[in-house]
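User: Please predict structures.

Assistant: First:
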Amino acid sequence: MSHAQELRATGRVELTALRFNRGAGLKVLALHGWLDNAMSFAPLAAAWPEAEITALEFAGHGHSQHLPPGAWYHLIDYLDDISAGMTLMTEGCDLLLGHSLGGASATAFAAARPAQVPRMALIEALGPIAYAPEVATQALRTGLDERAALASKQLRLFESIEQAVAARLAANRMQPESARLLVERSLRVAGEGWCWASDPRLRVANPLRLSEAAIQNWIAAIECKVCLIAADHPPPYFTEATRQSRIACLRDSEQHILPGHHHLHMDDPQAVAAVLKQFV
């Protein structure tokens, strides 16, 4: 796997990043998915040596700091993390690359700060998850209830890294080697075992989401060319119908459907790298 240089960025908290293929000509800022970390892009970096990939870790993820007590995680606040990640790009950013949560955040950032995004590639995302208006009140109640209950919850403990990898595989359809890459950076020692290092607040249900109309308004404001890569086994929150209706809002785009599941950039990095090489 590609050697990575660990970096620090000062944002709302101290953020970490891993830089792969240091010195390569194409400069990429990469944003990982929910509960993932910078190692999400290690397989892609190995398959794409022409790209210097700076993989940022959002607050509460990977080795980045957690938010202070009383704070919660919202999509809009990840845009501050992206701005901090941009300061690591000493020669500028040629491509903003996002997977899942990272792709949703990149979508919002490109809409808000078009001058900073010359080109964007999204894997399994184009904007955040929308709530139908009729479930808004229930979502609000559920989110607040989960916030209130969080303090009484115990962290899940694992006897070994292998046990944690098995838990990740039970939650996501992905290759075991992909799960291990993520898990090894996602754990911390807890007594005689291990627990997740990510902030438990990340797992609280979002009490407030945008409507589909609002998300499509964001997407229509994106000025750069966009490459969308999606798996032919789409997750329930990013269906083919949603993808098609949103990509129709883009001014300049291309779409590629590849065999695989949500973490296809890890499970089949050669195929994803081939698309990205052609795109740039």
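Second:
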Amino acid sequence: MKKMSKVLLLAAGLATTLLFSEPAGAQGKPNKLGWKLGAQAYTFNRFTLAQALDKMDSCGIHFVECYPGQTIGGGIEGKMDYNMDAAKRAQVKALLKEKNKELVAFGVVVPNTAEEWTAVFEFAKAMDIKVITSEPHTQDLDLVSSLCDKYKIKVAFHDHPRPSHYWHPDSVLNAIKGRSKYMGACADIGHWVRSGLDPVECLKKLNGHVFSLHFKDLNEKSPDAHDVIWGTGISNIPGVMAELKRQKFKGLFSTEYEHHWENSVPEVKASAAYWYEQVSKL
């Protein structure tokens, strides 16, 4: 109990310090590295997309990864869906512009037919989405490869924990071998930890094939682990970031905080500040 209290106090202290001490010049360093700090809207899945964008704003986060099924809100009827018509897409783009947010990625989405896959790529093209986050069925890999080449849009293979098909980096490498250069990995480092894997070693295996990340720090290495403020858990955030720099990674870090769902903003904000602090040291 005493040990747990010390951990909680450390986390609270780190959050307070980081919230008010973002390193000078930290905003410019990510641009030089080609890094974008964003948020997976799933972090705020108890809220509408419009509300989620406001919460991201309060955390100093500009880039967005949307997911299918979130209520849009902000006076716009319906949910985020790759089958939205042109008028609805225009409304969502206007909402993003109003909130000063840039939509970079969309997922996790798993189409079941060639028609659905084509619809996803058409949606991504219309919305200026750079990365489709997915866990494609193995029988669709050649189709996905051809669509990637046709649309020049990336598909990043996401790793839900074992026993999901892509839980291990080797399965991602096998899937993309000999296929489009626009096929790579969305590295969910938290799910790797839940699967008992070392995030740094996983990144090394995927060297050069990481397109984006779902960024997490967890309290323990187990399937039941939960998110904690970055830098206070066991995901070795500094080591992960150093490895990504070594690989000359350029792309999106999607904050995906899946804890304290109703009031995660303080922890997301503290995590973002920690990220900028670590970037400034690289």
